[in-house]
C-alpha cells in the first residue's frame, strides 16, 4: 500500500461508484466515502435513462452485461408539442447503422438495481474501500488526489472551487411511477408543455416513470394532492389512448437548474465530477449519461501513458476540464434551447416549433441528426 497512490472519492452515488470502478484498474487505493449508509444509498425511488454512449462506457468497464438484466429498452420515442399539437415518432430505423443493431433507442434502469450491481462490483476489488467520513478521517491518510461526486447541491463547491455559473429555471421535477393501459409497449414519450416538459419512461409491462416538470410552486402543490386527484390531473395531459390505473411507490421532487463549476486557478489536487461539476435541464435525459462521460474522460487521461504519475496529477485538473468542456457546453446549449423554445406560449416561436416538427417528419436526415446526438453524444467515437 505504501507505493500506491491514494485516491479519495467523496460521494457514493452512481457517478462516484463508477469512478471508483474505473480507477481501480490502476495501481492505486481508492477510498470511497459518503455520509449515507450503503442501504440508504441504494434505497431511492429514482429512474435513469441510459444512452448508447453510456452503453459503450459500461461495456468498457465490463458492467453492461451485469446491468443488462435490469434494463428496460425502448424502441420508439414519441415527441409532441401540446401547444401547437405537432408530434413525431422516432424509431430505431432512424439510428446510425453502428447502433441500430441493438434494437433500442435507449434504456431505463431503476436506481436501486443500478446501485446494487455497482456495489456488488466494488466488492470484487481489493483496492476499493467504502467507509463513512469519520472512519476515514481517523485513518489520517495523505491523499494524492480527491474527486468530489457530491451532487448538484454540493457544499464542497462553495468551499473549494473558484466560480460557479448557474441559471435557475424556477422549475422543479415531480417524479413517480404509474400503471398505464392502452400505451405502446417499449415507447418513451417527451411531451412539451408551456409549463415544462413531461417525460414518460417505460419500465416493466404497463409501468412507467413520470418526470413532470413545472413551476416549483405547482410541483409542490401537486406533491400534496390526493393520489386520485393527481391521476385525474395527469389524465388530462397524457395522450388520449392512455388509461391510468394507479400511482405506484413514492413521490420525489427536485429543483431544476443549469450550472457549470469552473476549476479553481490553482494546482490543488481535486476535481468535481458529475452533477457537482455540471447540471442540465432533464429534458432529453442527458444528466447521468453526461456524468459518466466525465468518468470515462478521467479514466482515459490516466490511461494515456498506461500508468499514473505525480507529474500527471499536477496538471490533471486543467486537462480534465479542457477535455470535457465542449461536450458540456453543447449539452447546455441543446437542453437550454429546447426549454427556451418549447416550454412557453410565446406566439412568435410558434413558426419555429411547427417548422421543427415539419423537418423531423419530412426528412430522414433531421431525425437521424436529432436522435443520434441524443443517444451517442459528441464523444461517442472517442470511447474505446
From TrEMBL:
Annotated InterPro entries: FAD-bd, FAD/NAD-bd_sf, UbiH/COQ6_monooxygenase
SUPFAM superfamilies: FAD/NAD(P)-binding domain
Domain FAD-binding: 188-297
Gene Ontology MF terms: FAD binding
Organism, as annotated: Prochlorococcus marinus (strain MIT 9301)
One Pfam family, short name: FAD_binding_3
Name of the protein this chain belongs to: Possible 2-octaprenyl-6-methoxyphenol 4-monoxygenase UbiH
